[in-house]
Amino acid sequence: MHLNRKSIAAISILIIILFLSACSRGAIFPTTKSAMNASEEAVGKDKATWQSQTPEDGGHVEPGSEFDITWNMLNSGDTTWTTDYCLRYFAGTNLTKPGKYRYNLPQSVAPGEVGACSVDAVAPWEPGTYQMFVVLSNGNDENFSKVDITIVVDEMEE
Fold it and tell me: Does the pLDDT value for residue 103 go beyond 90?
C-alpha cells in the first residue's frame, strides 16, 4: 500500500489528537491521587475557556505568507494572568516564526475577562492542511489549557 503525503499528514494529525485526548483523560500518564492533588494545588486556579480565534479553522493562507494567529480566551479561573503567562508551541506543525516558541501575553487578564493570545506565524510552502497545538502556561511554565488551529495552504498562483 502506498501512502501519499496528505494521507501521512492526516494519519499523523489523527495520532496526535488521539494521544492528546488520552493524555487529558490520564490514560497515557496516569497519576496517583497524591500527585493529582499536588498538581491541582499548583495550577488548579488557572483555567481558560476558548472563545474565538483568527484565522478560523480551515482558513486559507498563501504559501510562505506571514500572519498572526490570535486566540481569544476567557480567564475562567481564580487567578489573574500576568505578562509572565504565555502561549507555547506544543505539537503538530510548528507554524510559529523560526526560533520563536514562546509568546508572552501582552497584558494582564483578570478572572472573568477575555484576553487575546497571539503568535506570529509563517505558512509552510507546501500546499496542504496543517494543524498546530499550543498550550497556555502560567508564570511557572505549568500548562493549564491547550488550543489548536487548522489552516489550509493553497497552491501557489502563477
Answer: yes
Q: How many CB atoms lie within 10 A of CB 30?
A: 9
Q: Which three cell numbers stand for residue 46?
A: 488557572
Alpha carbon distance 136, 75 (integer Å): 11
As a whole number of angstroms, the distance between CA 148 and CA 38 comes to 27
Measure the CA–CA gap between 69 and 75, rounded to whole angstroms.
19
Sorted by sequence, the CB contacts under 8 Å of residue 84 that are 6+ apart come out as 104, 138, 139
Separation between Cα atoms, residue 31 and residue 131, nearest integer Å: 28
- pLDDT band at 37, cuts 50/70/90? very low
Query: For position 12, what pLDDT does the model report?
Result: 56
Give Cα 79 to chain centroid, integer Å: 21
Q: Are 123 and 95 in contact (CB under 8 A)?
A: yes
Rounded CA-CA distance 80/97 in Å is: 28
Does this model's pTM top 0.85? My answer is: no
